[in-house]
Design brief:
Protein name: Secreted protein
Keywords: Signal
Organism: Cryobacterium zongtaii
Helix content: 25-40%
Distance between the termini: 10 Å
C-alpha cells in the first residue's frame, strides 16, 4: 500500500472521529468500517485483535484494540490499527515503543494540531505513521 494511500486513510479516520463522538458504538463501527474499506479496499476486523499478518516487529501500546484492517495492493501489504489507551500520553508511549524496537523517527513527517499529533517512523522494511490523541493511537503501516 502506498504511503499516500495509507495517509489518506488516516486523514479520513481523523477527520470523521470528532463527528462520531456522539454516535452509538454500532454507528461508530459502521462509519469506521466504511471509511477504512473505502480507503484501502480491505477487510476490517472490529475489536480485540491485531489484523492477520501484523508484523511482529511493530509493537503497539497497551490498551483496547478497537479495529484493525489489512490489505494487499500490487503485492504490498499494509495495515491500519486503532488502540484506545488510558496512558497519560499515548502518542509518546507508541513512539517510544517503536524507537525501542529499532524504528527511526522521520522528523520531516511529524505534526501537532491541537490534541492530535502525528509521527512517522521507519526501519528497513516498514514505515509506521502513528496519530495520537489523549484517547489513543491510530497506526498505519506500509512497506518501506
Amino acid at each position: 500500500m502506498s504511503p499516500l494511500r495509507m495517509g489518506l486513510a488516516l486523514a479520513a479516520v481523523l477527520a470523521v472521529a470528532p463527528a462520531l463522538a456522539g454516535c452509538s458504538d454500532a454507528q461508530v463501527q459502521d462509519a469506521v468500517n466504511g471509511a477504512v474499506q473505502g480507503a484501502t479496499d480491505g477487510d476490517v476486523s472490529l475489536g480485540g485483535a491485531l489484523p492477520d499478518g501484523w508484523p511482529a516487529e511493530i509493537p503497539v501500546i497497551d490498551g483496547e484494540i478497537k479495529f484493525g484492517a489489512g490489505n494487499t495492493t500490487n503485492g504490498d501489504q499494509g495495515w491500519v490499527v486503532t488502540v484506545a489507551s488510558g496512558a497519560a500520553d499515548p502518542l509518546a508511549d507508541a513512539e517510544q515503543k517503536l524507537v525501542d524496537a529499532g524504528f527511526v523517527p522521520d522528523t520531516s513527517a511529524s505534526a501537532n494540531v491541537g490534541d492530535v499529533g502525528v509521527v512517522a517512523l521507519k526501519n528497513a522494511t516498514h514505515i509506521v505513521t502513528i496519530a495520537g490523541t489523549p484517547d489513543g493511537v491510530l497506526y498505519t503501516v506500509a512497506p518501506a
